[in-house]
Amino acid sequence: MDKLEDLRHRFLQIKDRRNPAKIRQEIQEIEVRSSDPGYWQDQEQAARGMKRLSGLQKEIAEIDQLEKLISQRQTDQAEKMIKKIELILFFADKYDTLPAILSIHAGQGGVEAMDWAQMLERMYIKYCEKRNWDLRVLDENSGEEAGIKSVTIAIDEPYAYGFLKFEAGTHRLVRQSPFNADRLRQTSFALVEVLPQIEERDEIQIAEDDLEWQFFRSSTQGGQNVQKVSTAVRLHHKPSGIIVTCQTQRYQEQNRKIALQLLRSRLWQQEREKKATEITALKGGRTKAAWGTQIRSYVLHPYKMVKDLRTEIETQNVDSVLDGGLERFIEGEIRLLTG
């Protein structure tokens, strides 16, 4: 089979899985609903609909462009595009299509770990920027001297959870410390969590009586924009013990809605972990602690290397990885770990 014939065969597989006719039908249905003035009365629902419409239109545009490239025998461009689209075919979990919530928590090690957590925050923001993904920082807890203790970021793009879910785990950094005069070798750890953005669904029941709200002033740098109103929120879900905070939005109601969304995602995670524990117990195994074992090492000294410990993918171009160049690692995770 020559290259062009192989590309045609792979394209037909993509069409069979993506079902362009079904996508076009959903586009038409959303466009019809959005033409009704009543559709825009619920602005949040309308915004989700427009986001969904944009994603579907992008999918159709990609399929049409790929078909054109193959018909024009532009094999190099077509192959590059097919590899990108084929990754989505690995996504079998119904949550893989959803936007994501990514959190980073500094591990033990004080200022070193907090600086490492901030380096990871920058890395993932750069990765999202390279993909033209929209994101919002929902909550950030700065370190006393440098870096961050934790940060929570919403990545508001379809399939963001599918692409990023295998980034969850412990990330290890080895380098010469920039925080002491002797430049000693230091090992730091940070934990990455990735959750789907769960909207209001029947499967995630939250009773108002189970919620305890607290309101406080958002952290600011002072000056003219110093926060005078308690717009930040802390939400405690009493049955599970889960606590979430949000303080980045200007109005309290916006922070309340985001806190509820974070709570839904964390309740979903808790339920999944419970089921996974039950399955492991039935198989006679043991579950690892939530902190888990490290999934990737980033070494800056005495040599330079980033290595994923699951896929064995590695590179000496550490600067590129820390600047958001995660494509090779994420593609390897999806191909090896899905299913």
Key descriptive features of the protein:
single chain; 339 residues; alpha+beta; Methane Monooxygenase Hydroxylase, Chain G, domain 1; Alpha-Beta Plaits; Double Stranded RNA Binding Domain; eight-stranded mixed sheet; three-stranded antiparallel sheet; globular
Rg result: 22 Å
The biggest sheet amounts to: 8 strands, mixed
Strand content: 15-25%
> What count of helical segments does DSSP give?
9
Structural class call reads alpha+beta
Low-confidence stretches are: 220-228, 285-291
Strand and helix order: HHHHEHEEHEEEEEHEEEHH
Q: Based on CA inertia axes, which overall geometry fits? A: globular
How does this structure look, described?
This protein is of the alpha+beta class and 339 residues long. The chain folds into three domains: 3-89, Release factor (Methane Monooxygenase Hydroxylase, Chain G, domain 1, Up-down Bundle); 96-198 and 293-337, Alpha-Beta Plaits (2-Layer Sandwich); 208-282, Double Stranded RNA Binding Domain. It contains nine helices and eleven strands. It has helices spanning 3-18, 20-34, 43-71, 75-88, 111-130, 160-164, 252-282, 318-322, 327-337, and strands spanning 100-106, 135-142, 148-155, 169-176, 185-196, 211-216, 232-237, 242-246, 294-299, 305-308, 314-315. The strands form two sheets. Strands 2-3-1-5-4-9-10-11 form an eight-stranded mixed beta sheet. The protein is globular, with a radius of gyration of 22 Å. The chain starts with a helix and ends with a helix. Residues 220-228 and 285-291 have low confidence and may be disordered.
